[in-house]
């Protein structure tokens, strides 16, 4: 289950935590799963607006930073390992032909 689904279902209550080890690097903990995160500055300020009636909007915040969480999935790791193995095999085959 991802954060968006948890928000939509109302299941996200004190289950996540962000800890910074430096000014920009840290870890994001969600349901006992630890992922690295990085705080970045956006190139320009983004204005956030809110509406209660979908006709009248008012400014609610100026956003100038974003947290990027890197999620490592098992499938991606396996694909990366297979790609590295294939490269090694091709290199070995090329050396054998020379």
How would you describe this protein?
This protein is of the alpha+beta class and 98 residues long. The chain has one domain (3-97). Helix content is 32%, strand content 44%. The chain has helices spanning 3-9, 74-97, and strands spanning 16-20, 25-30, 33-51, 57-69. A 4-stranded antiparallel beta sheet has the order 1-2-3-4, with no helix packed on it. A hairpin with a 5-residue loop joins strand 3 (33-51) and strand 4. The longest helix is centred in the C-terminal third of the chain and has 24 residues, at 74-97.
Biggest sheet: strand arrangement? 1-2-3-4
Estimate what percentage of residues fall within beta strands: 35-45%
β-strand number: 4
What is the number of helical segments per DSSP (H or I, 4+ residues)? 2
Helix content: 25-40%
Structure classification: alpha+beta
- End-to-end gap: 51 Å
Q: Count up the domains.
A: 1
How is the secondary structure organized here?
Elements: H1 3-9, E1 16-20, E2 25-30, E3 33-51, E4 57-69, H2 74-97
In short:
The chain is of the alpha+beta class.
State the main characteristics.
98 residues; alpha+beta; four-stranded antiparallel β-sheet; 2 helices; 4 strands; elongated
């Amino acid at each position: 289950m991802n954060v968006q689904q948890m928000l939509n279902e109302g299941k996200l209550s004190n289950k996540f935590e962000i800890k910074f080890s430096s000014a920009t690097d840290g870890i994001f903990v969600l349901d006992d799963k630890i992922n690295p995160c990085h705080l970045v500055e956006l190139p320009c300020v983004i204005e956030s607006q809110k509406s209660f009636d979908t006709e009248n909007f008012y400014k609610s915040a100026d956003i100038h930073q974003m947290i990027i969480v890197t999620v490592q999935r098992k499938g991606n790791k396996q694909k990366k390992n297979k790609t590295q193995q294939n490269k090694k095999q091709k290199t070995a085959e090329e050396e054998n032909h020379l």
